[in-house]
Design a protein that fits this description.
Length: about 450
């Protein structure tokens, strides 16, 4: 057996050993990205992440505080004005005269109280619908960020697997080059691709870490706290709220009644109408009742004669009671400017609500069309495209080991596999994001 044949046999045996070891490692090794960020046992589901955000997010807590403030305003609006108590003491300096007066003023609040209470009730409606819209937008943001994070984790997992495969392939080519079965240039080319794939792993991991920090901020979790997800990107596609079945069930007529922004715009109309009514009521006359009691001790520095004819000081004590009313007369200022401004705000609120409804209907139609179109694109990947790309890499590697393909052919197919997996991840992310946008457009919160 010649030396050349022995070298070729040794190279083939070494290549087979490396390939076998790579296959075993690929089956046993689980991507570190999945272990670090996703846990079926300890991770939070998508609904749990949304619930945590609704419970802990400072934005939602602020909106709930505004609801409590509106309820406090309603309590205050239902109270009647306090009466006023007045007292007056007058004394003649150096003389005997003295007057003591006590008065009570009671505003009747004839027309203003119903307007105030109705306006406060509408304020509660505005605050509550604002809270629901805040929750809707926050839930949409959490779903979107979760999808981005799971997609980034999947991209990281794919890059880790490709980097591991290229590193093993580099070792294979290096062994062939060492045995003389391959030129050193092929070893260097394989080393360049392996190192570049390893660098992409670090870059993608940074993207995952940054997206995780953004998700923590959304749900109110401190940066140092641990956060794990239960489902990966492909498992999220099977959830009821993001599944194709849910999309089909919502393919009926467009409805915007459940959207928080539409409800908020309609509540704003009622609030402005109540404000206009309150201003008109405040322009009506009002009555304030006044009552007082006065004790007057008065006299003169002279003496008079009593009934018996004896001299006595001229002095007496007098008791006076008064009852009256004060009427506010809206003669010149009937709040004409405030009424005109409030009427204009009602019109503006109606036009804003109309624009919000039109925008909501357009958003629903666009989200539904986008989701359905992306589902058709996903069907192409589900037809075995990814399996075919993986099979091509395996076939090309086998051909290279038999000397029927070049290193460039193997690297090209490997890059094509990577691009296919990346494109699949991007398309899956876009599809689930479109379904999430449709759920948000339909007013879904949890």
């Amino acid at each position: 057996m010649s030396v050349r044949i022995l070298r070729q046999f040794s190279a083939s045996f070494l290549a087979a050993t490396v390939c076998l070891q790579a296959a075993v490692n690929a089956q046993e090794a689980r991507p570190t990205a999945v272990v670090q960020f996703i846990s079926a046992e300890r991770g939070l589901s998508l609904s749990a992440l949304v619930a945590t955000a609704l419970e802990r997010s400072p934005t939602v807590l602020a909106a709930r505080a505004r609801v409590e403030a509106a309820r406090g305003d309603r309590l205050q609006a239902g109270l009647r004005p306090n009466p006023s108590l007045m007292s007056d003491l007058r004394e003649d300096i150096g003389g005997p005269d003295r007057q003591t007066m006590v008065g009570l003023s009671v505003p009747l609040d004839l027309f203003r109280r119903p307007g105030r209470t109705d306006l406060a009730d509408r304020g509660i409606d505005v605050a509550e619908t604002e809270l629901r819209n805040t929750e809707r937008l926050l839930a949409a943001a959490v779903r979107s960020k979760t999808l981005q994070l799971t997609a980034a984790v999947r991209q990281l997992s794919v890059r880790e697997q490709v980097a591991r495969t290229l590193a093993q392939f580099r070792d294979l080519v290096a062994a062939r080059a060492e045995s003389g079965a391959a030129p050193p240039l092929e070893r260097d080319v394989a080393d360049v691709d392996a190192r570049r794939a390893a660098a992409e792993v670090f870059r993608q991991r940074a993207v995952v870490e940054a997206t995780m920090s953004e998700l923590k901020a959304l749900i109110g979790v401190q940066p140092g706290e641990s956060l794990l997800m239960r489902d990966d990107l492909e498992q999220l596609a099977l959830l009821p709220d993001l599944s194709e079945a849910r999309l089909t069930s919502t393919a009926g007529p467009q409805t915007t009644g459940g959207r928080g922004d539409v409800q908020l715009a309609e509540a704003q109309i009622r609030f402005e109408a109540a404000n206009l009514s309150s201003i008109r009521r405040s322009a009506k006359p009002d009555v304030t009742l006044n009552t007082s009691y006065m004790r007057m001790n008065s006299g003169f520095p002279l003496f008079g004669l009593s009934a018996s004819g004896a001299p006595e000081p001229i002095q007496g004590v007098f008791h006076n009671v008064s009852i009256g009313a004060m009427v506010t007369l809206p003669f010149r200022d009937r709040r004409q400017g405030d009424i005109a401004a409030a009427a204009a705000r009602v019109t503006a609120a109606e036009r804003t609500a109309e624009a919000t409804r039109l925008s909501a209907n357009a958003e629903i139609a666009a989200a539904r069309s986008r989701a359905q179109g992306l589902d058709e694109a996903m069907a192409l990947f589900s037809g075995g495209l990814r399996d075919l790309a993986l099979k091509n890499v395996e076939v090309m590697r086998g051909s290279y080991e038999l000397g029927r393909a070049t290193l460039l052919d193997v690297l090209t197919e490997t890059r094509r596999l990577l691009e296919t997996e990346m494109a699949y991840t991007d398309l899956l992310l876009e599809t689930l994001q479109a379904r999430s946008d449709l759920a948000t457009a339909m007013g879904v919160i949890r």
